Amino acid sequence: MSSNSRRPRSRNRPTGFVLCATLLLAHAPSAVATPAPSAPTSTPVDAPPRALTCLAKWYPVLTPTRLEAGWGVRLPDGRAFLFDDGQQKSFARKLEAPDLEDTLSLPYRTGPIAPVVREDDDPGRIRFDPLFTATYGDAEARVDVVPIRFLGQSLKVHRKVEPVFQRLAARLEALVAKDASLRPFLTNVGGTFVWRDVANTRRRSAHSYGVSLDLNTARAHYWEWQRPRQPVRWRNAVPQVLVDAFEAEGFIWGGRWYHYDTMHFEYRPELLDPDCAPAR
Ligand SMILES: [Zn+2]
């Protein structure tokens, strides 16, 4: 599958404002005009970081906002957060107290499945909870889930990502029709909506929002299950075609993590969109 076909489709993002800005520039007075005394003298175009604009494309609850200390976001409830808080953090600290920029700091790579051997190379495990609670709901009763049929099973997923799950189901149905050996991975799937914390932490699990799915646990490998516990030794049995199908619809896969969780898929289109990679 080409890398193009794997790119998640943009959801109803208007490009009009970009176009308008371009037109305005094109029709601006010629460069010889003297700026008015009140014109800003700092950066001529004070635009938000590209990664932040990209993130707001996938999560329209985010309004990029110029804050005193730099670019940030405002949420519908009025709270504002810096995009980059400027702190140097260990990986553990990024998990516990990330800013939005930290959540994008580890590149997610598609392509041929390969063992993950670099310690803490876990793109997607860093999550900024206010973004997810604002997008999907901040309490179990406020997560708007709908039932779907998924390869003969009934699952509950968030209403906002229901079309994504439908497209995914259609892709997987087509694959199973061609290759029946894939079906055991897709039986007893679950975990799409479970309001809970990540085991042994106070962080909200991605399963709390109805945007994740676990394959059949009998065909999965998970770093927490391995014995002895250390060192972490990556293992996987999930076939490439299944991973490709999920990634094509904007899901990341826990098999691309050092702390591997090969049953786990999670809708995180920002990590599959090259425009969301922070500048280095
Ligand atoms: Zn999971």
Describe what you observe in this structure:
This protein is of the alpha+beta class and 280 residues long. The chain has one domain (48-276). 24% of the residues lie in helices and 12% in strands. It has 8 helices and 8 strands; from the N terminus they run αααβββαααββαβαββ. The protein has helices spanning 3-6, 16-26, 50-58, 91-96, 100-103, 129-136, 162-178, 240-248, and strands at 63-67, 70-74, 80-82, 145-150, 153-158, 212-214, 251-253, 264-267. A 3-stranded antiparallel β-sheet has the order 1-2-3. It has a 3-stranded antiparallel β-sheet with strand order 6-8-7. Strand 2 and strand 3 form a beta hairpin. The longest helix has 17 residues, at 162-178. The radius of gyration is 21 Å and the shape is globular. The protein starts with a helix and ends in a 13-residue tail after the last strand. Residues 1-37 and 39-44 have low confidence and may be disordered. Bound molecules: zinc ion. Zinc ion binds at residues 191, 207, 212, 214, 264.
